[in-house]
Structure formats: C-alpha cells, structure tokens
Structure to design on (317 residues):
C-alpha cells in the first residue's frame, strides 16, 4: 500500500523524479505528475488504465501560470477565472507548444485549473512545473474524496498519497470552453453550477454526454460507476420490485424507507452542497456493503443538483 502523509517536501521529491503522487483537491483526489514530462504523464495513463484519447487537466496556481501555458484567454473565460478561481472549475484554452500532446490527447486545447486546496497550492508553488492530474481512481470507477479511497484502489501502484483531508466539494470541477462565437460552453457539469456561471457571463450552451464528442472525449456515458447494479427511479417502487434482494438505498431528504438493509442519506435536510460532498463516499460504501442492489433517485435538478444527477445518470446500471 502507499504511504499516506502530509509531507509536501517528500511529494515534491517524488514528482521531481518523474513519478506520480496522489494529491488532494477540493473536488476529488488527483493522480499527479509533471505535466511537462511525457514519460511521467504516460505513467498516469498506465496506472489509471486510462485510454490515451481521454485528456488530462493541468493544475496551476494563478492567472499568470494559466497564461504561461495557454495562447490566449477569451474575455468571458477571463471573467470566470476572476470570479471562480481558485475553485472547482477547469478552462479549456488553446495550448502552448510546451504542453505535450500526450496531456491533451492530441487536442489543441488544454484544460487548466487552479485548485482551491492549501496543501496542493503549497506543493505547486514549490515546483517549477504544473501538475497533470486526472481523478485518482481506476478508469470508469467512482472518484476518490479521501486518501483512503485512493489507497484502496491505487495503493499498490503508487508510493505516496498527500493527505489533505476529505475533499470539501466532493464532485469534479465544471469544465468550460468557448465556441466559435466566443460564447461559453459547458463540457462537464461540476462544482460550479450553471446558474452561478450564467450570473457572470449570461446564457451559456451545454455540450455534454456525447461519447463521440471530440471536444470532451472523456465524457463517456458509463463513468463513475459502482460495480453493483445501480437502479435509479422512484425509490419506494424500486424497493417493492426488488423485495427478494438485499437492498441498499442512497436517499436524499427527510424520508424513511422500510425493508432495506442499508440507507445512506446524502442530506437529510435536502442540502445539495452537502449531498455533492457525500455522493462518491456513499456510492463507494454501498458498493462495498453486503447488499445486492443500490437504489436511488435523482435529486432536484437545480444548482449542484444538476452535477449530482449527471453523475447518477453515468453510474446507472
Ligand atoms: O475536479 C477535477 O477536475 C479533478 C481534480 C483532480 O482536479 N480532475 C478530474 O480529472 O476530474 P479527470 O481526468 O478525471 O477528468 C477530466 C476530464 C476528462 O475526462 C476530459 O474529458 C476533460 O476533462 N478534458 C481535459 N482536457 C480536455 C481538453 N483539452 N478538451 C476536452 N476535454 C478535456
Ligand atoms: Mg475522472
């Protein structure tokens, strides 16, 4: 298993050797390596068993470092950076030559993000390169929000997990880009809601959910998936239909269910921020529990609820 610790200097040392380290962020844990080192980046893909057509996000510390790796920043993206970064949002920008093609899967844009996590910002500030980091889970499985989650699945393949506690947002960053008319397009729903983005830049377009979409090759429909059957719909009806099985429920709000083995409630007082924070941890717990099926329903489709429902849809069996 990997060591879990708070030693930023050790993480720095391992990264400088061209190896990978799991790092904390406010969204989920990342599997990080030197973004400017093709070999190091290749080992991320190998460890994650991730297809090479799925590009990585590059983590930086400031607007200045975003400028260092992108050719230009459209006005509306600049406005979003000023509003939301550091934070759970990634910008697709035309990349400079210095970013290797392996990072972007050959695309001419690079995803850049300033994470809002003091440990990882401190680490980045001591490095003279940015960090490419996908979520630190095997490809297709639920993203990790604690060091222990990372260790369970990738611990045998990496040396060190930098401990930054539980991720406070709990759901991946929102990915935004720009279209041919200089309008903002959202490529992945995440920690910053559509509503919040529209308050800054006006009406936006959505471009998600397409497995064949070349702008977001990683947005495969089957993603974030537990191994157990994950049924989505009216919870009471689904419990009724599966009465002969051992049932685990992923619930939301102040409702009680009968005749089930386990009920994990995302937020008893229907708080979507709390629900996002608990989502992946509870999906994991249900996946590991002594039950046959997981039953859940969509949450209200507003604010962070849209990102939660997106992950539920992708986890659906
Ligand atoms: O919150 C997050 O974004 C986390 C933390 C670790 O920062 N990272 C994360 O990375 O979720 P990952 O690799 O699991 O998902 C990143 C997604 C990819 O699936 C890909 O679709 C998209 O970002 N992406 C990255 N670069 C892209 C690009 N140049 N064009 C289109 N999509 C891109
Ligand atoms: Mg991921």
């Amino acid at each position: 298993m990997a060591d879990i610790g708070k030693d930023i200097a050790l993480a720095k040392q391992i990264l400088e050797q061209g190896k990978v380290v799991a790092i904390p962020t406010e969204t989920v844990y990342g599997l990080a390596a030197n973004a400017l080192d093709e070999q190091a980046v290749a080992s991320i893909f190998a460890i994650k068993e991730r297809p090479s057509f799925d590009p990585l996000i590059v983590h930086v510390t400031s607007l200045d470092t975003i400028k260092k790796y992108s050719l230009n920043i459209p006005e509306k993206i600049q406005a979003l950076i000023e509003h939301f970064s550091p934070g759970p949002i990634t910008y697709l920008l035309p990349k400079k030559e210095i970013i290797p093609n392996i990072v972007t899967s050959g695309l001419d844009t690079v995803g850049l993000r300033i994470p809002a996590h003091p440990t990882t910002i401190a680490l980045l500030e001591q490095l003279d390169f940015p960090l490419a980091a996908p979520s630190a889970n095997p490809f297709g499985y639920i993203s990790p929000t604690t060091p222990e989650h990372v260790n369970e699945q990738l611990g045998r393949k990496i040396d060190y997990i930098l401990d930054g506690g539980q991720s406070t947002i709990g759901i991946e960053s929102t990915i935004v880009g720009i279209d041919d008319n200089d309008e903002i397009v959202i490529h992945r729903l995440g920690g910053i809601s559509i509503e919040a983005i529209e308050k800054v830049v006006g009406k936006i377009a959505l471009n998600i959910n397409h497995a064949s979409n070349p702008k977001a090759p990683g947005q495969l429909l089957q993603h974030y998936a537990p191994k157990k059957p994950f049924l989505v719909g009216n919870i009471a009806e689904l419990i009724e239909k599966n009465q002969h099985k051992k049932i685990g429920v992923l619930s939301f709000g102040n409702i009680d269910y009968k005749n089930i083995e386990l009920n994990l409630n995302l937020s008893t007082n229907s708080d979507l921020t709390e629900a996002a924070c608990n989502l992946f941890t509870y999906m994991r717990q249900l996946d590991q529990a002594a039950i046959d099926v997981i039953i859940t329903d969509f949450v209200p489709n507003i604010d962070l609820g849209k990102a939660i429902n997106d992950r539920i849809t992708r986890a659906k069996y």
About this structure: The chain has eleven helices and 15 strands. The longest helix spans residues 272-288. The CA atoms of residues 72 and 94 lie 7 Å apart. The longest strand covers residues 89-94.
